[in-house]
Amino acid sequence: MTDVIGDFVLVRSDGIPAYNFAVVVDDALMEISHVIRGEDHISNTPRQLLLYEAIGWRPPLFGHVSMVLGSDHAKLSKRHGATSVGEFRERGYLPEALANYLALIGWSPGENEEVLPLEELAKRFRIEDVGKSAGVFDPEKLAWVNRHYLKLAAPERLAELASPFLERQGWIRGRDSGFGVRDSEVLGFLARAVSIAAQSVDRLDQVPARLQFLFDYSATTAVANPTIRGEAVDSRAVIVALADELTNSGPLGDKETFRALAARVRERTGAKGKALFHPIRLALTGEQEGLELDLAVPLIEAGAQLRTSGVRAIFGAADRAAAFLAELEKPGSLA
């Protein structure tokens, strides 16, 4: 057989065992019964079988599967993006989503089902059903699976997992500070906020962009945007009515109180639909798009009620509307 596979090295000149020798000893001592690996290891298998025979150990059963390819059908590598578990975690993929998706590459659980818990996937798995052709890693499919699991995850768990991304923005204090996610009041608020934001993202690292209106609101910055300022000038009557109504109302703590306030602004101005709600969005979030207002505004009000140094101060709806109107009425803004 050496005429076919050559006289391979067992121990290098520096005394370190070579791969084929080390893996045989390691697997044998751990009593590994089955080895399933990529087809790039096919050439190693006969060498390892010789070592098992020479040492007198019973070899495991070997199986080789096709390699996973990138979207360009080349061997998956770093140039295709994240390739390690740690990188996927850093980007905000849930572990159950990643495990579920990886199980689908080159194999199907059948019954026209794809999103299944790991226990069910394990029950249905048969090595004989694994495809012979190479599977392609599809980031869009992974994102789709992750979105599914984000919608199922408990709010408290999402808040815990998203906390590092919020800490990097400087919006909450870290675990070592004694505040932040250790504060039950902050954790409850974050659980509510993150679970809402997670309904419209692919990964948890995208949550900060959806919550920027909460922590980074600036009337000055918003009105300085020519597009926002132009629309706000044209919709000044709505913003004036909004600011006035908020001055005389309590916090908009739920959908119903926000909708009731919007109805009063509509009655005062005659504005409807986008002509009503978009100026309200501009004034209260400083953004042109984002979460549904009947979700975003109660979040703003809940954040404004927080009394802790563990989270950046959040301005309430009344303060935001007043500040936005004041910026809008500064000399030159209405020109």
Overview of this protein structure:
With 335 residues, this protein is mostly helical. It has 17 helices and four strands. The radius of gyration is 29 Å and the shape is elongated. Strand 1 (34-38), helix 3 (45-55) and strand 2 (61-65) form a beta-alpha-beta unit. It has helices at 2-5, 19-29, 45-55, 85-90, 95-104, 118-124, 139-152, 155-168, 184-197, 207-215, 219-224, 226-234, 236-247, 255-269, 274-285, 293-304, 317-328, and strands spanning 34-38, 61-65, 68-69, 135-136. The chain has four domains: 2-65, 3-Layer(aba) Sandwich (Rossmann fold); 78-146, Orthogonal Bundle (Glutamyl-tRNA Synthetase, domain 2), CATH 1.10.1160; 153-213, Helicase, Ruva Protein, domain 3 (Orthogonal Bundle); 217-328, Arc Repressor Mutant, subunit A (Orthogonal Bundle). Strands 1-2 form a two-stranded parallel ribbon. It is 53% helix and 4% strand.
What percentage of amino acids are in beta strands? Answer: under 5%
Instruction: State the end-to-end CA separation.
Output: 89 Å
Q: Which bin fits the share of residues in helices? A: 40-55%
Question: How would you describe the oligomerization state of the chains in this entry?
Answer: single chain
As residue ranges, the low-confidence spans are none
Average residue pLDDT: 91
Biggest sheet strand line-up: 1-2
Number of helices: 17
Number of strands: 4
Q: Do you know the CATH topology of the largest domain? A: Arc Repressor Mutant, subunit A
Return the string of H and E elements: HHEHEEHHHEHHHHHHHHHHH
Please state the second-level CATH architecture of the largest domain. Answer: Orthogonal Bundle
Work out the radius of gyration: 29 Å
**Structural class by SSE content:** mainly alpha
Outline, from the CA principal axes? Answer: elongated
How is the biggest beta sheet arranged? 2 strands, parallel
CATH class of the largest domain: Mainly Alpha
- Total tally of structural domains: 4
